[in-house]
Amino acid sequence: MGVVYKIVLRAEPGPSPKSFNLCFNNRLEKSYIFDTVMDIKLFPSLQPYFTSRLSDVTTDREEYAQIENFLLDERPIDAVRALYRTYLDGNSISRFDDWQDKHADYLKEELEIDRKESKLLWTFRRENEFNRLRQIEPRLYLVRVERAAWPCSLVNNTSPEFVRTQIDAFGKGDGNARAFLERLLTVWNEERDQRPLFATTELEVEDILADATGDWADRLRNRLGLGHYDPAFLGPVDIFLMRYTVEEVIQALENNMGHPAIPTVLDGGFSQYFFPTPIPAPTCGETPYGHTLNLGLEDSESDYQMGIELLHPRIDYKPEHLYRVGVIQQPLAMPFERARSFHLPWLRLQYDREDFGSNLSSAAL
User: Fold this and answer.
1) C-alpha dist (Å) from residue 192 to 59, 160, 278, 306
2) Residues 304, 243 within the same domain
3) Domain total for the chain?
């Protein structure tokens, strides 16, 4: 039996704490207490900065989005909040750059660690059980977008187009192609750290992947909220689409403990294209996932479609994981502010949480 959790709301004024009883195989394991919002009072180093920037009409919208995400996210467990606080305490934070530096220190020490280190990332520790997706089907395929420039640069500046020909040849049983792809991936795997990897399910994007020609890479970028891949600033962006099973991810950690997790603001770097997923209301029957900010151009909230995302442990890539090569060519057309304003109502509807985000003013969202 997978994870079963019971939500009890306390009838108290203001943001209501929530108590969660997590059960495994019908046996009560542990109770967790969460706040419905990230309580900024727990981070005194950030409180004056947040208060100042939220009340300043000249605050950059990207900076505003990071503050919104931090205040909205109710999923980080107490243990990781305390850990994060150690990177903030004793430091005066008055500017966005200050906060970015402290957050970068946290990422470097806690998430972006060398692949050879035995340290288990907090994302996949027992303490974060509440955010783990234990009931996900192991045979399900996941897909992840990787920028091709870095791995190609590691092997004599190989072109992504040549890699594409080798993937095609490998699929037809060419031994030389297999040898090349194994060499490419061996070098790349040795350079990759242990940071949690964002991915989606193949089912979530099967409509896009059904068309292997045309603008599939652009549409995939939009569906997955990969706003940092913008040709308006980077030029055309070559990508590798990686494909592997949930079972491979689960087996990536000892004792098959690599089940994916729902992302939080403390699982990665700052991004205005990230949006936290609320804890479902007791009346909600939906299984929660992370949800990507859809960057496909839409003028109406009713036409907006959220994507799905999850985090999983690092895996060593194999030749069979190289699924497709593509190029993102179209600049982003959807303003991220509009996407965020469309995204919030859909989250509220999906998880029966009309109160989600009520701690922020309408102007903030």
Assistant:
1) 35, 19, 31, 29
2) yes
3) 2
